[in-house]
Design goal:
about 100 residues, 4 strands, 2 helices, single chain
Amino acid sequence: MPEIRFQIQWPDGSQDTCYSPSLVVKDYFAPATTYPLIDFVARSRTALTIASDRVQAKYGMPCGLALGQLRQIEATASRYEHLPTPTVTVLQFLE
């Protein structure tokens, strides 16, 4: 299964590199695109759940790394929910 990483920028300008065990994230994000925080989290939830499900279908168990990445995204996003219009930018895919 081809894995991929994607670099993001949070509302405060800090950056993270996120992991997915599947290229499905390319169906949900575009490089150099800014998303409202709530949309970014929803897209992440969908993409990383699909990625984990694909791992489960192939190997018989969900992908702990994908689910852990989702938890990290949700936890970090919660720090910005109080902002008036928080956004997250997907900077690039790292293949």
